[in-house]
């Protein structure tokens, strides 16, 4: 199986957007739909979704929208400085707001208590906090959130990579989500190999990045 580094993945993504002309929001939508495809919608009816403010969080917001369209119950949580959110994150958050969706912005102990009750109550947890760009150790409120996810969830699905895992080395950056399933996008990341305790089952899903983008970047990285 072909495995790639985080830098290669980012470059393939960027090439598809800048050189081929695929809008980044289209790739995000494709990613969300591929995650929905891997959820047992017949048996799982309630979800806790925890999003960071980057594009991994944007994936989570798009997934939340599709679950609502499937008439599922969704508790949505966001952690991070909303003033620093990415453009595509904000597009998806604005859609949810226009649909009347409420969310809890995790900023302190009161919000952690709400999160804990949600995790215990709902059938499944979706981890959409950090993507492959994470390189620093997880601390403070983020650490508390991931600890709660691991201890209180019935079932955990991570988007692209479990939050807290280094996408290149597989090193745990202080703490990591321990997922039952990880849906990763385009190609397998090196850091996901032999980390089943954290990744659970790994499913690699294409999200519409053309072969030309993959081949060009792999040749450039030789």
Automatic annotation (TrEMBL):
Its EC number is 5.1.99.6. Residues 9-215 form the YjeF N-terminal domain. It catalyses: (6R)-NADPHX = (6S)-NADPHX; (6R)-NADHX = (6S)-NADHX. One of its GO terms (molecular function) is NAD(P)HX epimerase activity. K(+) binds at residues 56, 127, 163. Keywords: Isomerase, Metal-binding, NAD, NADP, Nucleotide-binding, Potassium. InterPro entries: YjeF_N_dom. Its cofactor is K(+). (6S)-NADPHX binds at residues 55-59, 131-137, 142, 160. Pfam families: YjeF_N (PF03853). Catalyzes the epimerization of the S- and R-forms of NAD(P)HX, a damaged form of NAD(P)H that is a result of enzymatic or heat-dependent hydration. This is a prerequisite for the S-specific NAD(P)H-hydrate dehydratase to allow the repair of both epimers of NAD(P)HX. Belongs to the NnrE/AIBP family. NCBIfam families: yjeF_nterm (TIGR00197). This is NAD(P)H-hydrate epimerase. The gene is nnrE.
């Amino acid at each position: 199986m072909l495995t790639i580094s985080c830098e290669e993945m980012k470059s393939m993504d960027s090439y598809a957007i800048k050189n081929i002309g695929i809008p980044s929001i289209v790739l995000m939508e494709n990613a969300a739909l591929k995650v929905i495809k891997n959820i047992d919608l017949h048996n799982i009816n309630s979800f806790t979704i925890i999003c960071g403010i980057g594009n991994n969080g944007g994936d989570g917001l798009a997934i939340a929208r599709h679950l609502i369209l499937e008439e599922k119950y969704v508790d949505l949580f966001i952690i991070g400085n909303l003033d620093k959110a990415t453009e595509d994150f904000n597009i998806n958050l604005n859609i949810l707001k226009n649909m009347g969706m409420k969310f809890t912005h995790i900023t302190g102990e009161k919000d952690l208590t709400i999160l804990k009750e949600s995790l215990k109550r709902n059938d499944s947890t979706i981890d959409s906090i950090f993507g492959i760009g994470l390189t620093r150790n997880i601390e403070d409120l983020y650490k508390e959130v991931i600890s709660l996810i691991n201890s209180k969830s019935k079932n955990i699905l991570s988007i692209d990579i479990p939050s807290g895992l280094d996408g290149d080395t597989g090193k745990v950056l202080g703490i990591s989500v321990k997922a039952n399933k990880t849906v990763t996008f385009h190609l397998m990341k090196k850091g996901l190999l032999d980390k089943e305790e954290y990744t659970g089952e790994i499913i690699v899903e294409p999200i519409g990045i053309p072969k030309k983008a993959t081949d060009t970047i792999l040749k450039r990285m030789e």
